[in-house]
Design brief:
Strand content of chain C: under 5%
Shape of chain A: globular
Strand content of chain A: under 5%
Chains: A mainly alpha, B alpha/beta, C mainly alpha
Order of helices and strands of chain A: HHHHHHHHHHHHHHH
Radius of gyration of chain C: 22 Å
Structural class of chain A: mainly alpha
Low-confidence stretches of chain A: 1-15
Largest interface: A-C, 116 and 117 residues
Distance between the termini of chain A: 16 Å
Oligomer: heterotrimer
Radius of gyration of chain A: 23 Å
C-alpha cells in the first residue's frame, strides 16, 4: 500500500505533527461536508441519471458511432495538447524560477491570462483570426488550409484554454525548492540537461503530475471555446462535451449523462495513474 | 565553449522538432478534413451535404435526411450523406459567416439568413427563390401548462396576472424566444388597436412574471419540465408536442391562445459554398424535397405545420386553427423587428431598464 | 541584493535563452496574438462608443456581479480548499484516495453538465435545495447560484496548487518547531502557513480568473435576469447574437483589462511574500 509507505516514513514523532483527535475529526468532517455538497452529490446525480434506464442503455449510448467519434476526437486533442503544454510549462517555470529578470510578474500574469478569458471569447479570437472573415483568411485560402470548424481549430482552442496549467503548478513548487541543488550539481560538472533530468525533475514531480492531470482533465472537458470553433458537425467535429450537449438538447438525458460520466470516470482513472506513480515513487525511493 | 554550443544546438533541435511536429499534425488534420468534404464531382461519386440548422429541428431532419438520401439514390443512382449541425440559430448563422461550409442553412428566422446574405455568401433575393417565403413548414407559439391547467390559463390576458409565473428564454440569445416575444406583442397590438405604449406595458407585465430567462429554448423547457418552475411555458408548437411526447404525456397539456404568430423558419442554399463544392444541384433538390408530399408528411409528423394543402388537410386535427399574423404584417419584416425590439437599447432592453 | 541577482542570471544555471525564447514564442502564438485580435476588433469602435457600451447600467451591473461573485467563490475555495488539502495530505480516513481523485471533477465534467447537475441539486426540488428551501434560502436563479457554480469550477485550482507544496513540506520544520516548544496552532500559523502563502495566492488567483470567464455552467443556474443575475460573459454572447462583434469584444476587452490588473496585483503580492520567505 503506497500510503502506508509514506505514512511510516512521515511519522517518526507521533503527536508532534498531528492534532488531537477531535480537531482532526472536526476538520475532516468539515472538509468532507464541503466535498459532499460541491462534488459528491453532483457526481452521484450524473451517475444515477446515466444509469436510470439500465446498463444496456448506458452502453448503447457510449458505443453509438457518433459518441465513438466524439471520444476519438477528444482523445486525439488531449494527446496533442497535453504534451505541448507540458513542454511549455517546464520551460516557463524554469526561466521564471531560476533567473531574475525585470517584468517577471508581467510574464506570470500573461501566463495566467487564458483562465480569465471567457471561453466564448477565446474561441472568438480564433474565429477572428482564422475564420472566413478573419485576418488570416486570404493566407489560409491560398494554402487550402482549414483551421476553424475543423480539428486544428479545436486543438488550438484547447491549447489556449489549458495553456497555464503545467506552468502554474510548477512555478510555486520550483520556487519553494530554490536552486541550490542544481547549482551544486552543475558545479560538480553535470551538464545542464543531466542536472535538469536527475536533479530538478525528481524534485518537482508532484507539481508536474498535478499540472498534467489538471491540464488533461480540462483539455478533455472544455466546452465553451471548442463550441465556438467546432461547427458542431455530428460525427466529425464534436468532442465529448459537445456531444453531451447535443444529446441533452435532444432530450436524451440518460444518454447525455452516460457520455458525461465517461469524463467523470476519467478523473478516477487519472487518480489510479497517480496512485501507481506514487507507489512507484515510494519503491524507487527505497531501492 | 564546445560543450555549451552542443548544448545549445541540442536545445534548438528539440525546439525545432516540437514546432515542426505541431505544424505537421495541424496540417495533416487540416488536409484530411479538406479531402473529406470536397469529394464531390458531378458524376456518380458519393456526395456529402452539410445542413446547418437550429435546435428544434434535430428529430425532423434525422428522418428527412434518410428519406431524401433514398429518394436521391433512386433518382440519380448517387449516394448522398447529409451531415447535420445544430445549435442556436444566431450562433449557427455566425458559424456559416465565419467559414463553416454549409451547403444549406435551415434556420429559425429570416433575420439570421439575411445576416449571411449580407456577407455575400447567399444571394440577396434568397427568400424569393423558393415558395412560401422559403419557409416549407411553419409553426406557431403556444402555451404548455401543467396537467389540468391549475391556473386556468386560456389566453395571453392570463399571462399578465400577478399569480402566473411564465417560462420563456431570453430573446437576446434565443431565436425562438424572439417569436414568443413578438407573438405577445402582436396580441397586445391587436387588443389595444395598435397602441404601442399599451403594448409595451402589456409585454413588460408578462416579462415581470418571468422568473428565469434561460439562454436557449431547450434550457427553458428543462426549467419548466424538470425543475418544475413556472405555470406556463411559451414554446414553439412542435417543441410543446415534443416535450409532451418525450417528457410526460400525463403531466402537461397544450393551450392554444386565440391569436398567435405564424413562425416561418426559412431555408436557403448557400450559393458560394455549393458553387465551390459543386453540390448545387443536390442541395437545391434537397430543399425542394421539403415541399413535396413526403417532406411535408415528415414535417407534420414532427409537428411542424405543413404548407402543402393536401397534407395540411390530412393533419388538420393535430393543428388547431387559430388567428395567425406574420412578422411582415405587424412588424414590417425581421430586420425592422430586430432593430426596434431586440437590438441594444431596444424595447426589450427598456423593459428591464431600472426606472 | 542587486549584485546577487545579477550573478544569479549570469550564474551557473543554464537554459536561460532556450527556455525564455520558447516561453515567449509559445505564449505569443497561442495566447497573445489571438487576444490582440480582440483588442484590434474592439479598437474599431471610437472611444465614446466603447465607453458607452461598457458603462451602460446593464453592463456595469453584470461586471459587478461577475467580479464580486468570482471573488466570493475564490475566497470560499481558498478557505475550504486549504482545509481540504490539509485533511487530504495530513490525515488518513477511509475513501481518502477517491476524494482526492474527485477534486478534478469540475474540470473533467463539461461545464454544461456541471451547470445542469448543480441546478438539479440546488433547485427547490433538489437533494440539497429542498432543505435550503425550508430555511427560505433560494439558491438557484439568484446570485447565490452564481457563487455556487463558480465555487464548483474553482475548487481544483486551490487544492491542486497547495497540495504539492504541503506534500513536500519538510517535516523537519514542524518537528523543530515542536521541539522548540511551539504548540500545534503556532506551528501551523508561524511555520506551515507562511510557506503555503505563495501557493494559496496562486490557487486563489487561478480560481478567481477562471470564475470570471465562466459561462457554460452559470447560465443554467443563474436565471440570467438582466440587472440581477446576468454575468458579463452572457452579455458578450448576447452581443454576438446580434452580430455585434465590436460590442462583444469591447466587453471582453474590459473584462480582460480589469482581470489582468487584478491578477497582476495578486501575482505581485505573491512574489513579494515569497521573496520574504524564500530568500536565499
Amino acid at each position: 500500500m503506497p500510503q502506508m509507505g509514506t505514512k511510516t516514513k512521515k511519522q517518526p514523532l507521533v503527536g508532534v505533527h498531528t492534532e488531537s483527535a477531535w480537531i482532526r475529526f472536526i476538520l475532516t468532517g468539515t472538509a468532507l461536508l464541503f466535498v459532499g455538497f460541491f462534488l459528491i452529490i453532483p457526481l452521484i446525480t450524473v451517475f444515477t441519471e446515466a444509469l436510470k434506464n439500465g446498463l444496456e442503455v448506458y452502453f448503447a449510448s457510449v458505443t453509438e458511432p457518433d459518441a465513438q467519434s466524439a471520444i476519438r476526437l477528444t482523445l486525439l486533442t488531449a494527446a496533442i495538447v497535453v504534451p505541448l503544454n507540458f513542454i511549455f510549462g517546464i520551460a516557463a517555470a524554469w526561466c521564471i524560477t531560476k533567473f531574475q529578470f525585470p517584468g517577471k510578474t508581467w510574464l506570470i500574469t500573461l501566463i495566467d491570462l487564458p483562465f480569465s478569458v471567457s471561453p466564448v471569447i477565446a474561441g472568438l479570437s480564433f474565429v477572428l483570426l482564422f475564420g472566413a472573415q478573419g485576418l488570416l483568411a486570404p493566407v489560409l485560402d491560398s494554402l487550402g488550409l482549414k483551421i476553424i470548424f475543423a480539428v486544428p481549430g479545436i486543438i488550438l482552442a484547447t491549447l489556449f484554454v489549458t495553456f497555464p496549467f503545467v506552468a502554474r503548478e510548477l512555478i510555486p513548487v520550483m520556487q519553494a525548492k530554490g536552486s541550490e541543488q542544481e547549482e551544486a550539481a552543475l558545479s560538480l560538472g553535470a551538464s545542464g540537461w543531466k542536472t535538469f533530468l536527475f536533479v530538478t525533475l525528481p524534485n518537482v514531480k508532484w507539481g508536474i503530475l498535478y499540472g498534467v492531470i489538471l491540464c488533461n482533465a480540462r483539455a478533455m472537458g472544455e466546452f465553451g471555446a471548442v463550441s465556438v470553433v467546432s461547427g458542431h458537425i455530428r460525427g466529425m467535429t464534436n468532442t465529448i462535451p459537445l456531444h453531451v450537449e447535443i444529446l441533452y438538447n435532444e432530450y436524451q438525458f440518460t444518454a447525455a449523462f452516460a457520455v458525461a460520466s465517461l469524463l467523470a470516470m476519467l478523473a478516477i482513472v487519472t487518480l489510479i495513474v497517480k496512485g501507481v506513480l506514487e507507489w512507484k515513487g515510494v519503491v524507487d525511493g527505497k531501492g | 565553449m564546445n560543450i555549451t554550443n552542443k548544448r545549445k544546438s541540442k536545445g534548438l533541435f528539440f525546439l525545432l522538432s516540437v514546432i515542426t511536429s505541431v505544424a505537421l499534425v495541424l496540417s495533416a488534420c487540416g488536409s484530411k478534413n479538406e479531402s473529406a468534404s470536397s469529394s464531390s464531382e458531378g458524376d456518380k461519386k458519393a456526395v456529402e451535404l452539410l445542413n446547418v440548422s437550429y435546435d428544434p429541428t434535430r428529430e425532423f431532419y434525422q428522418d428527412f435526411n434518410k428519406a431524401f438520401a433514398s429518394y436521391w439514390k433512386e433518382k440519380t443512382g448517387q449516394e448522398v450523406t447529409i451531415k447535420q449541425s445544430h445549435g442556436g440559430s444566431g450562433k449557427q448563422a455566425r458559424s456559416v459567416i465565419d467559414g463553416l461550409e454549409a451547403d444549406v442553412v435551415t434556420l429559425a428566422l429570416a433575420y439570421d439568413i439575411d445576416a449571411i446574405a449580407d456577407t455575400g455568401l447567399i444571394e440577396k433575393n434568397w427568400q424569393q427563390r423558393l415558395d412560401k417565403n422559403s419557409s416549407p413548414y411553419t409553426s406557431t407559439i403556444v402555451f404548455l401548462v401543467r396537467k389540468g391547467n391549475p391556473k386556468g390559463i386560456k389566453d395571453w390576458d392570463d399571462l399578465v396576472r400577478s399569480d402566473v409565473s411564465i417560462i420563456t428564454p431570453n430573446p437576446k440569445t434565443s431565436g425562438g424566444a424572439r417569436w414568443n416575444y413578438l407573438a405577445a406583442w402582436g396580441y397586445a397590438l391587436k387588443k389595444y388597436g395598435g397602441d404601442e405604449e399599451k403594448a409595451k406595458e402589456f409585454v413588460a407585465k408578462i416579462y415581470k412574471n418571468v422568473p428565469v430567462l434561460d439562454s436557449g429554448a431547450r434550457g427553458a423547457t428543462t426549467t419548466f419540465v424538470e425543475r418544475k418552475i413556472g405555470d406556463v411555458l411559451l414554446a414553439w408548437e412542435n417543441e410543446a408536442f415534443l416535450a409532451i411526447n418525450e417528457l410526460g404525456k400525463d403531466q402537461f397539456e397544450i393551450v392554444v391562445p386565440s391569436v398567435s404568430i405564424l413562425a416561418e423558419p426559412p431555408v436557403a442554399v448557400v450559393d458560394k459554398v455549393v458553387d465551390k463544392k459543386g453540390t448545387r444541384e443536390v442541395a437545391e433538390e434537397y430543399l425542394k424535397y421539403l415541399y413535396t408530399e413526403e417532406g411535408q408528411e415528415l414535417a407534420a409528423k414532427h409537428y411542424y405545420r405543413p404548407t402543402l394543402p393536401k397534407v395540411a388537410e390530412k393533419y388538420k386535427d393535430t393543428f388547431p386553427q387559430l388567428e395567425l399574423f406574420t412578422v411582415d404584417e405587424l412588424f414590417g419584416g425581421w430586420r425592422e423587428a430586430q432593430k426596434k425590439h431586440f437590438d441594444d437599447g431596444g424595447i426589450f432592453d427598456q423593459i428591464y431598464q431600472p426606472k | 541584493m542587486a549584485k546577487t541577482k545579477q550573478q544569479h542570471r549570469k550564474g551557473v544555471i543554464p537554459g536561460w535563452g532556450l527556455t525564455m525564447g520558447f516561453t515567449l514564442t509559445y505564449l505569443s502564438l497561442i495566447v497573445l496574438i489571438p487576444l490582440s485580435v480582440i483588442f484590434l476588433k474592439a479598437s474599431t469602435l471610437s472611444w465614446e462608443q466603447f465607453w458607452q457600451i461598457v458603462t451602460t447600467d446593464r453592463v456595469a451591473a453584470s461586471l459587478r456581479l461577475s467580479f464580486v461573485s468570482s471573488f466570493i467563490a475564490a475566497a470560499i475555495n481558498l478557505v475550504f480548499g486549504l482545509l481540504l488539502t490539509w485533511v487530504l495530505v495530513k490525515y488518513d480516513f477511509p475513501g481518502k484516495r477517491i476524494i482526492d481523485g474527485l477534486i478534478d471533477l469540475p474540470f473533467a465534467l463539461p461545464t454544461a453538465v456541471a451547470g445542469i447537475s448543480l441546478t438539479a441539486v440546488y433547485a427547490p426540488t433538489g437533494v440539497i435545495g429542498q432543505y435550503l428551501d425550508r430555511f427560505g434560502i433560494e439558491a438557484v436563479y439568484t446570485p447565490l447560484g452564481v457563487v455556487i457554480a463558480l465555487t464548483f469550477i474553482g475548487l481544483p485550482f486551490v487544492v491542486r496548487s497547495i497540495q504539492p507544496i504541503l506534500h513536500d513540506l519538510d517535516q523537519q520544520y514542524e518537528e523543530a518547531a515542536a521541539v522548540l516548544g511551539a504548540n500545534r496552532w503556532q506551528t501551523f500559523w508561524k511555520v506551515i502557513l507562511p510557506s503555503l502563502v505563495p501557493a494559496m495566492f496562486t490557487g486563489f488567483s487561478l480560481a478567481f480568473a477562471r470564475a470570471l470567464g465562466e459561462y457554460g455552467s452559470v447560465v443554467f443556474i443563474s436565471g440570467n435576469m438582466p440587472m440581477k443575475t446576468e454575468i458579463a460573459p452572457l452579455l458578450i454572447v448576447t452581443k454576438l447574437e446580434q452580430y455585434d462583434y465590436e460590442g462583444a469584444t469591447a466587453i471582453a476587452a474590459i473584462v480582460l483589462i480589469i482581470s489582468f490588473f487584478l491578477l497582476f496585483l495578486i501575482n505581485y503580492l505573491q512574489w513579494r511574500t515569497s521573496r520574504k520567505y524564500f530568500i536565499h
